[in-house]
Task: inverse folding
C-alpha cells in the first residue's frame, strides 16, 4: 500500500477552503499511486475548540463539508483519513473520519457504538483495511502504541501538541534523533506514519516534518520542516526497507526552529485577521528591533511599518546624546530591513492630556501616547499591531506593558519567550543577513531592557519609599540569566521556592520575583495573544487573580504532604483504639477483681504488662495441657472422666487438669 501525508497550512475553520484543498491533494496523491491520504488534525477547529464544538450549526457545517468531500473524492482513487474534533455527549472528541466510495465513516464513534459505550474515555485506536493493509489511527503515541492490535501493518499518528522548543516529541522527524517515536513503532510491531501539521492555528504553532518509519524504528521517508509538502511512501511490513541517512533528516536547531515558528505565527496571524501588513513601535532596543526583523521575514519589507516617536523628556546633554543614538539605531534598522519608517513628535505629553499639574509618571504617559501613535498609523493602513512584549515583561511588569500599548496590539510574537533568549535569536537572524545594529546583538542590550522592566515592576508597588527602595536594591544586583532562570523554573516547570536557581544565592530577591509574578495575574489576562512555544505558557498557567499568597519558601521545614497527614491521623486512630482497649480491659479486670475479692494491689498487678504476660502464658500452657490430655484419652480408647463428680466441690484431677483444683 502507498500512504500519502498532506502537510498543508490552512486557516482553521475555513471549511470550503479545506474541502477544495484536500480534494486537490487527493488527486495528486492518487496520481502517485497512493491508496490512502491523511490530513493534519487542527485544520477544521484547531486544538482548542472550546465552546465551538458544542455549537449545533458548526457540527452541521463540519459534517456536511466532510460528506461533500467524500462524494467529490469518491472516484479519486485514494481513500482519505481526516481527523476532526466533534461533540460527543457534550464533550469534545477527536474523531477519525474515513472517506471512501462516497461515504463518510466516523471510525471511533462506530467502534464505541459496537462496544455499547458511547464514552470519550473508552478509547481504542480504530483499525480498518485499505488495499489489503491494516491501518490504525492514533492520537497519542505512548499510550496508544500499547493498544494497537497485533497484526496491524501501519499506525497513523496525528500530532495534536503544538511546537515546544524544549520538547523533542513536537519536532517531527527531527525528534527521532533524540530518541522519540522509534520505541513506539518497535513496541507496536508496525510501521508508523507521523502526520505533522504546519503553520499557526490560533496560539498553537506546528513545525511540520512529517515522516514514515518502518517497524524496526528507521525513518524511510520525511517531509521538510516549516513547509507544505505531500509525502508519499510505500508501506511494506515485514520486508527490508531503505532507511534515510541521518544527514537527510531535518535537524533541530533551537534558535532556527524557534525563529521559523515565530515567522509562521506572524504570517498566519496577520492573514487570519484579514490583513496583509503590520505596524509596530521602534524604540531602538533589542525586542522592538528584533520584532521588526521578524515581521519583515514573515510579511515582506513592503508590508511592515515601524513607528518612531521622539521623546519629549530630554533635558540634559547626556539625555540628548542617548536620544540621538536611539534615533540613529532605529533609522539604521529601517534602512537595513528596507521597511517604511514613520516618525512622530509627541511634544509635551502633559499638555496633550490637558493636565494642570505635570504627571508624576512621565514615562508611562509618554509610552501611552506612543502607543496611540502606533494605533493611528495602523488604523490608516488597515494593519495589524504587533507588540514587542516578552515573557519577562508579562511575568514581572504586565501593567507597564499594557500602558505601553500592549492592550491595543493584535499579537505579541515574543510573549512566550524570555528576554535572554532574544539575544540568541538576534544572533541567528544576523547570521542569515545582517540587519540589526551590532550594539543590539549583545548582553548589554539585554541588560538595558531588563533594567527598564525591573524599574517598571518596582514602580507598580504601592507608594512606600522604604519598601520600593529595598526591592530596587535587591533586583538591581541580578543578572538577566538569573532573573529569567528563576522565572522559568517557577512558571514553566512549576518548581517551588527552594528549587528556584536564585533562591540559594539571594532568597529575598527570589521571593520578590515570585511575588511580582503573582501580583501580575489579573493584568496578564489583558495582554495580547502570543504563540505557545514553551513548556508552560501563561495562557495555560492561570492562578487566581485576587490571590494574596506568594511562595516564600518553607524556612527549612520539611514539606507538608497530604499523605503524611493521612498517615499521622491513621496512627492517632490506632493509638486511640489501643487506649480504648486498655481501658476496657481495666474495667473488666476491676469487675472480676471485685467478684473474686482481690485487693487493689492485686488488681493493679493483674492489669500490669507483667500480669498480662503471665495470664497469656498461663492460658497458652493450659491450652497445651488440655490438648495433650484430650489426645492421650483418645489414644487409650477410654471415655474422659468428668471433671466434676457429684454435686459437691470440683474434684482435682492431678496430672491431667491442674487448672481445676479445690482452691
Result:
Amino acid at each position: 500500500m502507498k500512504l500519502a501525508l498532506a502537510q498543508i497550512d490552512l486557516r482553521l475553520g475555513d471549511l470550503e477552503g479545506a474541502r477544495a484543498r484536500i480534494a486537490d491533494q487527493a488527486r495528486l496523491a492518487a496520481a502517485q499511486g497512493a491508496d490512502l491520504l491523511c490530513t493534519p488534525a487542527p485544520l477544521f477547529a484547531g486544538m482548542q475548540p472550546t465552546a465551538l464544538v458544542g455549537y449545533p450549526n458548526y457540527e452541521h457545517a463540519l459534517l456536511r463539508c466532510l460528506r461533500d468531500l467524500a462524494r467529490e473524492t469518491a472516484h479519486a482513487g485514494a481513500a482519505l483519513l481526516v481527523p476532526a474534533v466533534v461533540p460527543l455527549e457534550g464533550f469534545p472528541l477527536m474523531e477519525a473520519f474515513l472517506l471512501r466510495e462516497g461515504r463518510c465513516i466516523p471510525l471511533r464513534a462506530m467502534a464505541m457504538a459496537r462496544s455499547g459505550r458511547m464514552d470519550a474515555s473508552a478509547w481504542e485506536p480504530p483499525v480498518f483495511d485499505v488495499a489489503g493493509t491494516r491501518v490504525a489511527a492514533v492520537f497519542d503515541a505512548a499510550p496508544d502504541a500499547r493498544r494497537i492490535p497485533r497484526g496491524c501493518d501501519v499506525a497513523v499518528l496525528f500530532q495534536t501538541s503544538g511546537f515546544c522548543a524544549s520538547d523533542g516529541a513536537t519536532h517531527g522527524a527531527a525528534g527521532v534523533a533524540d530518541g522519540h517515536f522509534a520505541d513506539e513503532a518497535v513496541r507496536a510491531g508496525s510501521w508508523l506514519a507521523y502526520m505533522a501539521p504546519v503553520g499557526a492555528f490560533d496560539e498553537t504553532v506546528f513545525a511540520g516534518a512529517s515522516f514514515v518509519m518502518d517497524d524496526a524504528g528507521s525513518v524511510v521517508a520525511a517531509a521538510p520542516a516549516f513547509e507544505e509538502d505531500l509525502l508519499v511512501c510505500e508501506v511494506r511490513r515485514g520486508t527490508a526497507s531503505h532507511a534515510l541517512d541521518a544527514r537527510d533528516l531535518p535537524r533541530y536547531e533551537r534558535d532556527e526552529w524557534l525563529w521559523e515558528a515565530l515567522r509562521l505565527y506572524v504570517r498566519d496571524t496577520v492573514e487570519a485577521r484579514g490583513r496583509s501588513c503590520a505596524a509596530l513601535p521602534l524604540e531602538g532596543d533589542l525586542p522592538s528591533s528584533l520584532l521588526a526583523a521578524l515581521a519583515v521575514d514573515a510579511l515582506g519589507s513592503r508590508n511592515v511599518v515601524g513607528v518612531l516617536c521622539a521623546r519629549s523628556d530630554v533635558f540634559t546633554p547626556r539625555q540628548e546624546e542617548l536620544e540621538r543614538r536611539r534615533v540613529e539605531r532605529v533609522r539604521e534598522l529601517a534602512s537595513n530591513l528596507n521597511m517604511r519608517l514613520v516618525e512622530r513628535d509627541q511634544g509635551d505629553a502633559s499638555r496633550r492630556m490637558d493636565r494642570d499639574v505635570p504627571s508624576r509618571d512621565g514615562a508611562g504617559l509618554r509610552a501611552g501616547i506612543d502607543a496611540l501613535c502606533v494605533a493611528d498609523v495602523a488604523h490608516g493602513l488597515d494593519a495589524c499591531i504587533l507588540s514587542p512584549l516578552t515573557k519577562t515583561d508579562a511575568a514581572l511588569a504586565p501593567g507597564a506593558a499594557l500602558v505601553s500599548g500592549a492592550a491595543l496590539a493584535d499579537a505579541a510574537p515574543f510573549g512566550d519567550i524570555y528576554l535572554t533568549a532574544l539575544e540568541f535569536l538576534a544572533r541567528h537572524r544576523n547570521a542569515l543577513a545582517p540587519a540589526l545594529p551590532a550594539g543590539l546583538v549583545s548582553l548589554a542590550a539585554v541588560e538595558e531592557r531588563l533594567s527598564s522592566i525591573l524599574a517598571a515592576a518596582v514602580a507598580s508597588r504601592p507608594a512606600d519609599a522604604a519598601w520600593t527602595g529595598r526591592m530596587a536594591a535587591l533586583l538591581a544586583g541580578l543578572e538577566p540569566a538569573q532573573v529569567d532562570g528563576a522565572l522559568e523554573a517557577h512558571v514553566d516547570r512549576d518548581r517551588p521556592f527552594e528549587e528556584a536557581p536564585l533562591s540559594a544565592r539571594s532568597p529575598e530577591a527570589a521571593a520578590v520575583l515570585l511575588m511580582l509574578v503573582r501580583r501580575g495575574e489579573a493584568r496578564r489576562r489583558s495582554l495580547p495573544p502570543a504563540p505557545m512555544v514553551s513548556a508552560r505558557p501563561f495562557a495555560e498557567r492561570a492562578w487566581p487573580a485576587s490571590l494574596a499568597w506568594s511562595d516564600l519558601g518553607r524556612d527549612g521545614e520539611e514539606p507538608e504532604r497530604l499523605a503524611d497527614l493521612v498517615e499521622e491521623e491513621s496512627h492517632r486512630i490506632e493509638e486511640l483504639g489501643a487506649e480504648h482497649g486498655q481501658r476496657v480491659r481495666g474495667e473488666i479486670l476491676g469487675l472480676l477483681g471485685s467478684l473474686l475479692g482481690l485487693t487493689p494491689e492485686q488488681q493493679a498487678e493483674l492489669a500490669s504488662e507483667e500480669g498480662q504476660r503471665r495470664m497469656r502464658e498461663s492460658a497458652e500452657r493450659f491450652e497445651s495441657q488440655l490438648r495433650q490430655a484430650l489426645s492421650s484419652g483418645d489414644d487409650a480408647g477410654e471415655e474422659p472422666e468428668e471433671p466434676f463428680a457429684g454435686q459437691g466441690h470440683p474434684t482435682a484431677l492431678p496430672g491431667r487438669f491442674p487448672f481445676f483444683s479445690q482452691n
